[in-house]
Amino acid sequence: MDHDFFRHLHGSDQKTWRRVAYHLVLKGKREIAERTWLFSFAKPDGFSYQAGQHVRMTLEKLSSRAAGGNVRFLSFASAPLEQDLTFALRMRPSAFKQELDRLIPGDRVMVEMLIDPPQGAFFLDTQGVNATVFIAGGIGIVPIFSMIKSALDSGQERALILFYCNRRPEDAAFLKDLHALAQQHPSFKFLPTMTASPAWGGATGRITKAMIYDQVRDPKAARYYIAGLEGMVTDTQSMLRRAGVSKTSIISEEFGAFAAASHARRKKPQGYLWLLLLLVVLGGLHVGGGAYLAGVMPDNWQWNWTLIVGVTSAIMSLIALKLFLLRHFWRGRHRH
C-alpha cells in the first residue's frame, strides 16, 4: 500500500479529514500462508467500517523514530458483519512488523479511520454493472477478500469473478477460504493462477486479457478492482485500457514497500528539476558577470546585464519545466 499517499489523506498536509480513533485488543494470530500472518482483534462496541477500507495502525510501544516508523496503513481482511477485526500482513524484517509479531493476546494497538473516505477510495460498488471482476496479486488479496465476503453476506446475486495470481499455492493467502466460498455461492467464480509452481494443477502464468475475456461475458461493461504490487497493478490497468475498458471502470490499490518506494521515486524528478533551475540561473549569472567584468558587453549594455541574464535564465527555466511536465504527462498516460 502506498503509505505516503495515505499519510497525505490523514492530514500530513493539514487538510481536514474527519477521523475516529480506537484501541484494539489482540485476540490471536496465525500463519495463513508462507510468511503471511493474520492478526485478529476484538471489535469495539459501535465500530463500523466498509469492506476494502484501510486503517492507520500505530504501535505505541515502538518508537516513532524506529526505522520505518511505528505507523502502517492496513486494509481489513475481515468483512463488516464478522465478529472480529482481522488484518493480514506479509511478514518482512521491518521494525514495525517485528514489533507487531511480538504482541501477545491482550496487547493493544491504536487505529485511526477516515469517517468520510475520499471519492475513488477502494470500496465495492456493484450497482449498474453486469459483473464485478477482482484481480489480485499476492498480498493484494486482503481488501478484495473483505469485499467478496461482504458482497456474499449481503446476498449479492450479480456475478463476482476473482482472478488471483501468486508464485506458488504456499504463498497464496486465503486460498482454501476462497475455494470454499466459490463452492458455497454460485454467483462467485474463483480463478487462481500460479507463476512458479510446476506441480500446480490449475491455471498458470500471469493474468491475461484472454483469461478475462474467457470468463467475463461482457468485459467492457464490467467493473474492475485491482490490488497488488505497483508493477502488477500498472500492467493490468494498461491491459484493460487497451482492451477498451473505460478508466472509470477500473479501481486500483497498490500494496507493499514497493509502492511506497515507487512513490518516493516519482517525487525525485522534482528535486532534480529544482537543481537544474538553480544551475541554469547560476550559470547565467556567472557568464553574464564574467562578461561584464571583462568589458565584453557594449558600454550601453553594462548597466542592465542582469536583466538580460535574468530573461535568458527564465526562458531556459521555462523550457526545462515544459520538458519535465511533458515527460510526466506521457508517463501518466502510459500508467493508466
Automatic annotation (TrEMBL):
<keyword id="KW-0812">Transmembrane</keyword>
<dbReference type="InterPro" id="IPR001433">
    <property type="entry name" value="OxRdtase_FAD/NAD-bd"/>
</dbReference>
<dbReference type="Pfam" id="PF00175">
    <property type="entry name" value="NAD_binding_1"/>
</dbReference>
<feature type="transmembrane region" description="Helical">
    <location>
        <begin position="305"/>
        <end position="326"/>
    </location>
</feature>
<dbReference type="InterPro" id="IPR039261">
    <property type="entry name" value="FNR_nucleotide-bd"/>
</dbReference>
<protein>
    <submittedName>
        <fullName>Oxidoreductase NAD-binding domain protein</fullName>
    </submittedName>
</protein>
<dbReference type="InterPro" id="IPR017938">
    <property type="entry name" value="Riboflavin_synthase-like_b-brl"/>
</dbReference>
<dbReference type="GO" id="GO:0016491">
    <property type="term" value="F:oxidoreductase activity"/>
</dbReference>
<keyword id="KW-1133">Transmembrane helix</keyword>
<feature type="transmembrane region" description="Helical">
    <location>
        <begin position="272"/>
        <end position="293"/>
    </location>
</feature>
<dbReference type="InterPro" id="IPR017927">
    <property type="entry name" value="FAD-bd_FR_type"/>
</dbReference>
<keyword id="KW-0472">Membrane</keyword>
<dbReference type="InterPro" id="IPR050415">
    <property type="entry name" value="MRET"/>
</dbReference>
<feature type="domain" description="FAD-binding FR-type">
    <location>
        <begin position="19"/>
        <end position="125"/>
    </location>
</feature>
